[in-house]
């Protein structure tokens, strides 16, 4: 019902910011003393914040000194009186700051938990991004309502039911669409589909792929008009900024961090005639900053690619082989490819099988890592829908891997 989406943190101007929510809508009903403001898409907004819609509605009432009405069964949320939409959106920003954003890293990927020490009860924001637990201001009137109506926690390992989702069950913010990968990265994957379900969905959707995405097809097409190229370059610059200042590592959201310096250096580095010289220069810069062995460095390194990525991979393959030294590095590389193809250059989506093939044949990516990545939709690097699209487009390459395995088994 919402007419558009905005960043959960509206002070973040990055259009590739992966935490999004619907724009809050309002509708004035009634007259005189019976006038009221209806919030028709409050359930959608609250679901994006992973908070019960009753919390946000009651927050408005507390801030405006107005009575509120909450009907979760029919998803009808009302604030008595006539209230301007922009004013309510400003108040929603206040709710996000006080009850959603991690106080430490300002990431919305948090859930509320209630801690009891004796008779004392405190409401804590448990951040799935940085691991910090930060308290809320217990002097706010909403905290009394939260303590009386604690958030319902979804059962571990099962997808939240529709009612739970509307009540804000599960992990952090970001529209419930941010889904990091395995290991430590799985911490922010609460509420995501199970691996088996995702595998079935991806394979079912892949069957509907246009034949242009077949691995053997050679007539890959893209809009090469000056306007389209300019737009993609602008998009890539935004992705670079999101990558460098994404906050994935400690201190990485600091513009003076070595990651930010490395990203800026790559963006401004002159392109020599000899690719080998550029490879050496890039590695020396990473070494100078002390991040040549860090997996996030690989994520940033992907921004060196343009829409001509297939032609560029052979030139930079030696550099990636030197810097991609573990499974974690490979996951960062795949995350960077997701951003490159899914966000910066969407026209490259049909080429994802060829990109993966090139990296695989250069021994930069391992089969097991690619297969795990392809069947585990992740919101760590892009929004969930984009993540699914990229993985769906990779199905021809996965099929090729399976067929190659079958042939090896037959030969044995």
TrEMBL record:
Segments forming domain W2: 252-411
Q: List UniProt keywords, sorted A-Z.
A: GTP-binding, Initiation factor, Nucleotide-binding, Protein biosynthesis
CDD domains listed in its UniProt record: W2_eIF5
Amino acid composition bias (Gly residues), ranges on this chain: 168-177
Q: Which GO terms describe its molecular function?
A: eukaryotic initiation factor eIF2 binding; GDP-dissociation inhibitor activity; GTP binding; translation initiation factor activity
Specify where the region named Disordered lies, as residue ranges. 153-196
For this record, the Gene Ontology CC terms, alphabetical, are: cytosol
> Sorted alphabetically, which Gene3D superfamilies does this protein's record hold?
1.25.40.180, 2.20.25.350, 3.30.30.170
Give the domain of life.
Answer: Eukaryota
Where do Acidic residues bias regions lie?
183-196
Q: Which SMART domains match?
A: eIF2B_5, eIF5C
A Gene Ontology BP annotation from the UniProt entry: formation of cytoplasmic translation initiation complex
> Which family would the database say this protein is a member of?
Belongs to the eIF-2-beta/eIF-5 family.
Q: Which PANTHER family match?
A: EUKARYOTIC TRANSLATION INITIATION FACTOR (PTHR23001), EUKARYOTIC TRANSLATION INITIATION FACTOR 5 (PTHR23001:SF7)
| Protein name, as recorded | Domain found in IF2B/IF5-domain-containing protein
Task: State the species of origin.
Answer: Roridomyces roridus
Q: What is the lineage of its organism?
A: Eukaryota, Fungi, Dikarya, Basidiomycota, Agaricomycotina
């Amino acid at each position: 019902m919402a007419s558009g989406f905005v960043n959960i943190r509206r002070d973040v101007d990055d259009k590739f910011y992966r935490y999004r929510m619907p724009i809050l809508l309002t509708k004035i009903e009634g007259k005189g003393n019976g006038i009221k403001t209806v919030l028709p898409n409050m359930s959608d907004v609250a679901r994006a914040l992973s908070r019960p819609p009753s919390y946000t509605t009651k927050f408005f009432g507390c801030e405006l000194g107005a009575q509120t009405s909450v009907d979760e069964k029919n998803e009808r949320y009302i604030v008595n009186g006539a209230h301007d939409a922009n004013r309510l959106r400003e108040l929603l920003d206040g709710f996000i700051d006080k009850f959603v954003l991690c106080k430490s890293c300002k990431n919305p990927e948090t859930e509320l938990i209630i801690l009891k020490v004796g008779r004392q009860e405190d409401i804590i924001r448990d951040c799935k991004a940085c691991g910090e637990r930060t308290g809320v201001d217990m002097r706010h009137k909403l905290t009394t309502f939260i303590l009386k109506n604690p958030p319902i926690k979804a059962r571990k390992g099962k997808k939240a039911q529709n009612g739970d989702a509307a009540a804000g069950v599960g992990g952090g913010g970001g529209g419930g669409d941010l889904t990091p990968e395995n290991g430590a990265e799985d911490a922010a994957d609460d509420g995501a589909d199970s691996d088996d379900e995702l595998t079935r969905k991806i394979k079912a959707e892949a069957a509907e792929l246009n034949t242009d995405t077949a691995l053997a097809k050679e007539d890959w097409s893209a809009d090469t008009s000056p306007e389209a190229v300019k737009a993609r370059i602008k998009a890539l610059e935004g992705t670079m900024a999101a990558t460098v200042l994404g906050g994935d590592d400690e201190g990485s959201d600091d513009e003076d961090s070595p990651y930010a310096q490395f990203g800026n250096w790559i963006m401004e580095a002159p392109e020599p005639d000899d690719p080998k010289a550029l490879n050496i220069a890039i590695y020396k810069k990473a070494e100078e900053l002390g991040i040549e062995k860090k997996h996030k460095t690989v994520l940033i390194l992907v921004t060196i690619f343009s829409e001509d990525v297939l032609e560029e991979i052979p030139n930079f393959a030696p550099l990636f082989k030197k810097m991609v030294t573990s499974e974690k590095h490979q996951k960062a590389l795949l995350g960077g490819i997701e951003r490159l193809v899914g966000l910066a250059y969407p026209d490259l989506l049909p080429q994802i099988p060829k990109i993966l093939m090139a990296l695989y044949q250069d021994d930069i990516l391992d089969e097991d890592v690619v297969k795990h990545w392809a069947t585990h939709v992740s919101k760590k690097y892009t929004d969930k829908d984009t993540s699914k699209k990229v993985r769906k487009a990779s199905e021809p390459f996965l099929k090729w891997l399976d067929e190659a395995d079958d042939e090896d088994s037959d030969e044995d």
